[in-house]
Amino acid sequence: MVLLFVSAVVMTAADAKEKKDPIVMTVSGKDVPLSEFLFIAKKDNSVDLTDKKSVENYAELFKIYKLKVADAEALTIHQAPKFEKELESYKMQLQESFLSDKAGEDSVMRAIYERTKYIPGFKHIVFRFPDRNIFPKDTVAAYEKAMEAYNRIKNGESFEAVGEALAEESKNDEVRYVVINYIYPLQLLKTLEDKVFSMEPGEISLPVRAATGFHLIKLDRKIPNPGKMRVAHILTRVSPADPNNPTEEEINVARMKSDSIYQLAVSGEDFAELAKEYSADSVSGRRGGLLPYFGLGEMVAPFEEVAFALKDTGEISKPVQTLYGFHVLKLVDRKPEITFEEMESHLYESMKITERTFDLFGAFDEKMKERHGYVFYPEAYAELERLAGEYFPSDTSFFDHGKDMVKTLVRFDSIDFPQNVFVEYLYRKPYSAKTYSLDFMQEVFHFFIREIVTEMERETLERDYPEYNMLVNEYYDGILLFEISNKRVWSRPAEEQEKLETEWIKELKEKYPVTVNRKVLKKVKKYLN
To answer: Which region, left, alpha or beta, applies to residue 477 given φ > 0 means left and ψ of -120 to 50 means alpha?
Structure first.
């Protein structure tokens, strides 16, 4: 139904005034407009379009190019399934480049990238929602408890004490107290991440609603990102008789063995060979103790604390104890802060498939909404919100009650989209992982609007973007030119190709009629601007 409305928008939109585009030549009955001739010619650096002789010479080459395409069409190469599939694939890729705002996407990704320069550490008290689809009324109790805790903290109780006490008193795990030592962009729910990265050390937030519940957040620190490092290690495990209760003597035996390995390493013994011989980590041991690059928060705390304290390549640490045993570390390499260019692909792929998709493509959505005269009717949307307060938007009951709602919800150009069009869209495409009913409906509404503007643009590409038509036509001709040239010339022995090319061109000129508009060619210069 949405696509039917989009088609109506396109059909009722005023036709763009056609720009005068004279015919430069006709090849085998097909007219070639000057715009196409100039589009291709401008890509050839050897052509001077301000020089008549250069234009005439190029026109002859262009004519031969079009004759070869005509020959391929005469053989119906363009009707082959392989050809049609390749052309359609290209058109879809090309449409995606037109249906986007690269500058807007770049700006959003750079904003997220800037967050990688610092690593926050925080604590939060989570007042959890029920483990099911929830409605606004279901959030009230969690909010009241969160505000009560917030006021206790503001009145002098420590954040940590309140969090630990509430978690201890909690029944059915309704309240959790969680410590996050290090966090990186795109690891938290959007609402929480945006809040955490906007806070200053020591700051305590008001309750923040996320999918899981209301969160009170205290930012402990925000440290510069030291980048990633690579170490080699030699692990000595504690070997207790009782795995759950090692004795002090058993721990000391492992400590002394690790210390003796450390002494061998600092005395000049080859670290890699020591790892191969002594390390209890057999996987890294076979590689001379080498571990993958890691950043803060990716290893157990004692290990990474010692690792990041190493300053110079080749420096070796004294044994450090972790739950795995005792480790002797050697600094192998440090990677400075990753560049935006190195991270761009990861950011794009991660953001486009998560709730960040609306940030990533938001600039395009807003531009198209403005272009197509978008109007939003909040009263009509509020009625749908009230319905979502009673029935979850993906439920059949929501559809049954909403299918007869006909107030205008949004308008694009001169076309009204009533509430029931969106209700039907919700019913057919309930694509959201949100468990809070209003969030669920809002996310699907964003997809609804995006689908409308995207389809409107897709339908009008040929009318509104001349370059799109030129590129499709160029690719169409290019595939045909390759196939026919390979068939007639390139697949033959190299020594025969020049003669075959000459004979082919002669045949083409005799076989297909060509008319060149010399008057237009002589005036090419005036069409350049």
So the answer is: alpha
Spatial contact of 228 and 236, defined as CB atoms under 8 Å apart: no
pLDDT at 105 over 70: yes
- Whole-angstrom Cα distance, residue 329 to residue 299? 13
Taking the C-alpha atoms of residue 191 and residue 359, their distance in angstroms, rounded to an integer, is 12
User: What is the rounded distance in angstroms from the CA atom of residue 139 to the CA atom of residue 136?
Assistant: 6
Containing 162, the helix (H) or strand (E) segment is helix 159-169
Strands (DSSP E) contained in 156-212 are: 175-180, 208-209
Q: Is 28 exposed, middle or buried (0-12, 13-18, 19+ CB in 10 A)?
A: middle
As a whole number of angstroms, the distance between CA 146 and CA 219 comes to: 17
Element (H, E) at 190: helix 190-198
- The closest alpha carbon to 72, from 478, 492, 513, belongs to 478
Q: How far is CA 516 from the centre of its chain?
A: 48
| Ramachandran bin of 209, using left for φ above 0, alpha for ψ from -120 to 50, beta for the remaining angles | beta
The residue with tokens 């029944």 is 171
Closest to 123 in 3D by CA, of 79, 93, 153, 144? 153
pLDDT, tens digit (0-9, with 9 covering 90-100), for 445-499: 999 999 999 998 888 888 888 899 999 999 999 999 999 999 999 999 999 999 9
Q: What are phi and psi of 310, to 5 degrees?
A: -70, 135
| 328 token code pair | 């002797």
Q: Virtual CA dihedral for 95, 96, 101, 107, nearest 10 degrees?
A: -160
Q: In which residue are the tokens 């904003």 written? A: 111
Output b/e per residue, 182-220; b: 16+ Cβ within 10 A: bbbbbebebebbebbbebeeeeebebbbbbbbbbbbbbb
Decide: pTM greater than 0.90. Answer: no
CA 161 to centroid of chain Cα atoms: 40
